[in-house]
Amino acid sequence: MLAAAMIWGSAFVAQRLSLDAIGPFLFTGLRFLLGAGIVSAFVFAMGHVQRMRQGRDRAAPAFRLDAALLRSGTVLGLVLAVAISLQQIGLRYTKIANAGFISSLYVVIVPMIGVLLRHRTGPGTWIGAALATAGLYLLSINEHFSIMYGDWYQLGCALVISIQVMLVGYYAPRHDPLLLSIMQFVACGLVCLVIGVAVEPMHLANLVRAAPAILYGGALSVGVGYTIQVVAQRDAAPAHAAVIFSMEGVFAALAGWIALGETLSGRALVGCALMLAGLLACQLLPAARERVGAHETQAAESA
Can you give the pTM of this predicted structure? Predict the structure, then answer.
């Protein structure tokens, strides 16, 4: 999950650069369909290797689609299309660091949704979420308590992506994660591509200019990052996953600084540090509680 957060954070640079060539819907549609193609090729290749190992001339097809998988993938894809479109549009009007951190506000929203759904959320996650929230505040809200126009789009993205994280946590254990990822990417890509073709100008020269950003965003951010999310959330609670994924804000700020020269104030750097502290609290506190509990149990049994 931390690897996925690193990929997503660095992809903010590609997302910003793409806006100089093509519209947000075209970029999102093309990169998600590219991601679907990459994961599909991987599944096909793995199926071929498996058939070779089993010594079969013919084996069951790699793609086993059913109605439940189609429904689940379509729902995830539509929700993801709304979230990523808000994020991409908002990047026109805010800094990469702000976009990365504000869209990571799902670190707080997901545990709140979990409480409504009666999920068990440990104190480590709540402490991590609180630290991350403080970090987001220091980064995004300046001394005059004003917020950039594009930050509102990122906040909308955070609300919608929180729903997507919860849905992935629900659907991932019920389906093959790779096939579910492919269906999610296809649904998201088709919806955004149709909208982009309908409302955005499309010229071959601009598509060529945007090709590197599309390749990076499609191959890594979608093909690798979002597939890792689905695979990892088969064995992780949504609230716990949200805290780890929120580290994309730190990586986005670093990528914006390295690639585009965007600078961070001392206040913003403190916010980054609090985000990192939130991740460590989420990871280390539950492990410490388990060790203490195990020690107390052993002591009681010895007595």
Answer: 0.74
